[in-house]
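Protocol step 4 of 6: record predicted structures for both targets in the notebook before any analysis. Target 1:
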Amino acid sequence: MEERHKKILKKKYKDLTRDLRPDDIMDHLIQEDVFDFNDIELVRAQKVNQLQVEKLLSILLTRGPRAFGVFLESIEERYPWLHKDLKKADEESARQPQQPAPKQDENTSTSDARQPFQETEKPSPNQPLIPEEQTCVKRPPQPGTQTREKAVVQGTAGGSEPPLTDEEKVTRKMGNMQLSNQHTRFEVPPKVDSNRVTEKQLNALAGKLGHEWENLAIHLDLSKADVDRFKADNPYNTRSQIFSMLMAWRARRGGAATVGTLIRSLEDFGVGLDLKFLTQTS
């Protein structure tokens, strides 16, 4: 993706995280080969819509030059106000003239180009050679200037840093989002790893999960129709909906529905729970 397109997305970050729903556009991103199914799982693994948009944008920024145009196509129908703002910003940035790099003589280095030319006085044949370090005269520091080392020390001692701009904050946050799925896996004790998960364990898990359970169901290879059925069967009890979903997963996996398999699937999804309770046999 071009640098100017990255800047546009970062400047519109607040509007995108407020208005956009990733599920509305991800089919188009897959169809145009900008996203793959692993990207979709990473986005849907986030628990709230804002985090899903942040994850989507962090992935989008790493894609090729077509990504911005495909993203505009994906929001044109459902989000015309966002499409209009982004397209206008793109047209304005395209009209801005590119600043050419300053030319310099081919035989002049970058550091030499910043220094005035001084003719070196040739030593007299009878004049003894003087070591170079003794002939160099140190220039006194100019008023209002300081060395880089001194500036760093003073900045550290003062304990203050220049405030980040909104764009820098967004850049840092998106960079951190790319590391959000890296974590240490919980070690499942070998004695329970291959044990088939029990109804008691699934019931306990159902009591700990929240509104993210619908996305978890998709992660566990259940369908949207399955989710709708669980909700219709238990319209007033969320825990019962979640328990029905977990039991359906257990029935479909059969003997492969083990404690170890469940824990690893939950970790891959990004459930922020202490999963140790699933390893307790009593």
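Target 2:
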Amino acid sequence: MTIIITTSPIRSNPSTLLIESIIDTFHYGGPEFLKCPRLIVADGFKLETESIDKRKKHVTEKSAMRSGIVNPSQKLNYEAFKSNLRSKCTSPPPTSPFHNTTLLELPTRHGYGFALKSALQTITTKHVCVIQHDRTFMRPTPISSIIATMNADPSVKYVGILMRSNLLYLEHFCSKYHSELLNSNLSHVKRPSTLLLDKSQYGWNDVVAEDLCKRFSRCGEKYRTLRENYKNSVPYSQFLNQGGEEAQASLIPTLFWYDNIHICLTEHYLNFVFDPKLKLVARGGFVEDKLSPALVQCVRNVGFGEAMDKFGCYLFDDHCGVAFTGHLDGGSFLTEEQREGRKGGWIDENKKETVKKEEAEGEGDGDGDEDGDVDTSSIFGFGL
């Protein structure tokens, strides 16, 4: 498997601390995950002085940079950031966060989706783990077991790793869709033997949950409340297995493709998600923006089972009631030195930096350039 990390201009450039912070959490993926080759893809940008669609107004620095628009000063910072990455990825020692890492620099602005496509076209591994530059692991995540499950079951093409906002996915599903569709979802939940896991780390484990609350104390009460809500959820009542020596985890079908940390078949990405005939990804936008509505429409057109066969999208849930991943919010992220010197202009960020690594999760929300909606009724009504 290859790990692809996507990055683009942000306010903390030229510091590499944000990417180093997420790489520091890779040990939660297990020893085999740490050995995987890594590819950082750095998207291009648009200068604010260039011809830009005047219909798109960016009232804040953060929103402009999210769309790849930078001013001359930000351009210099981003170029310095890429230079720093280039240097760190060149013959790093085995102890470096950038060991076994290569950098792909895109000359022009692609947007998240097509920057990812460019990276995917350079790898040869069967699986890919896609991680945005501000997404972190927060607790042990059985990546090897998920890969083993995908190898044993070709119908599983995408596995999203739970974050706080989709921890209660089936509850949201219940409120959004009719009961018949919920029953279809539940009947397609997968609970294979490859997802029988160590109960000391997975399943309804108070020690694991409380450890997470203590490590991220700012969000501790929020996590505890969410976990109490999970006790009243469909996954808890339907799938929690408290007996036996192992915890049985589940793959729950999802009608939303989350750009949060996920594992996918490389072939599925290249030959299906980015199939030019299907137009499932908008140039300049996020994958989830157009693919998710297309998945829902496919269910309406051909039924739940056939749609799952085509898209193969699942969420991994060990039924602990807490998320696996977090969000550092790259758009707002600054090092301590940058926060202190914010009013006085940019400082030398190549020196040693520190930052409070408290996380606050959220879904990826694409606000890139759109190029029109998919005509899903014509695409997914016939044998895709």
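Step 5 preliminary note on target 2. The mean pLDDT is 87. The longest strand covers residues 2-7.
Proceed to step 6 after PI sign-off.
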